[in-house]
Specification:
Layout: H1 2-22, H2 24-53, H3 57-92, H4 96-101, H5 103-149, H6 160-175, H7 186-200, H8 208-240
Helix pairs in contact: 1-5, 1-8, 2-3, 3-8, 5-7, 5-8
């Protein structure tokens, strides 16, 4: 998954580089619209968090936590925007502020790709593992129930310990020449012992190895996508700048 994520991240970086290098007329409005939408969404999120926080102490704590996460997220987005935008503006000799703004939708697309992997690949795989375990667990419970139901109702209060004690009593009385009848019929005794043995069986264990691997794959995809995108966005402009001569470049550029 590391390689898959890296290819996707690098592809996104190269696609946006191509847009900035060849379709500059579309970059400016994209950047402005992205900034406006980001501002409106931020304001709406803050207002929503304040409305949630006004409902009580627990809501206030949750709202404060979400507000901190929102601030950190915006800080990260703005930091990446300036880092990538300034780098590409210097490489292609583009207007810096407009180039920085055009990075916002790129970051949003990257985030949507990560979210899509989590919701469409990782989460279904994790649910499948859980569903498989639950199916085996349900079969195990039904087997225990079926074993228990093999015991006639009037004998269901008798345990293996009681049977063993009765066998010991029979043995002791036999030494004195006395005969003690069995506590239950032989087939009932077998059913009781089998039912108790079934309860001692360890039930199916969730496939933790697969769950762990799903998490590892998701982290690898994230690292590959983000790392390759950042590397491509920072390094590729300087690699291809001499082959890209947009109309705004000076002859000496």
């Amino acid at each position: 998954m590391l390689l898959v994520g890296a290819l996707i991240g690098l592809g996104l970086a190269l696609a946006m580089l191509a847009i900035r290098a060849r379709c500059w007329a579309a970059v400016r409005p994209i950047g402005v619209i992205s900034l406006v939408l980001l501002g409106l969404l931020s304001v709406a999120a803050v207002l929503f968090l304040f409305s949630v926080g006004a409902k009580g102490s627990e809501g206030g704590i949750a709202a404060l936590t979400a507000l901190v996460i929102l601030v950190l997220g915006l800080t990260l987005v703005l930091g990446l925007m300036v880092l990538v935008g300034a780098n590409q503006a210097a490489a292609f000799k583009l207007p810096m502020w407009t180039t920085c703004l055009s990075v916002i939708p790129e970051i949003v697309v990257l985030g949507l790709l990560l979210l899509a992997y989590q919701s469409q690949v990782a989460a279904p795989a994790s649910r499948a593992v859980t569903a498989e375990w639950w199916e085996r667990e349900l079969a195990h419970r039904n087997s225990r129930k079926a074993k228990r139901e093999e015991i006639p109702e009037q004998y269901r209060g008798i345990t293996t310990q009681m049977l063993n004690e009765h066998v010991k009593t029979q043995s002791d009385m036999a030494k004195h020449g006395l005969s003690v009848p069995p506590l239950v019929p032989r087939e009932v005794e077998n059913a009781i012992r089998n039912a108790e043995l079934q309860t001692m069986d360890i039930g199916p264990i969730p496939d933790r190895a697969r769950q762990l691997q799903i998490g590892v794959d998701e982290n690898s995809f994230r690292k590959g996508a983000v790392g390759a995108w950042l590397l491509g966005a920072l390094a590729c402009p300087w690699i291809i700048r001499k082959r890209v001569l947009p109309p705004w470049h000076l002859p000496t550029a």
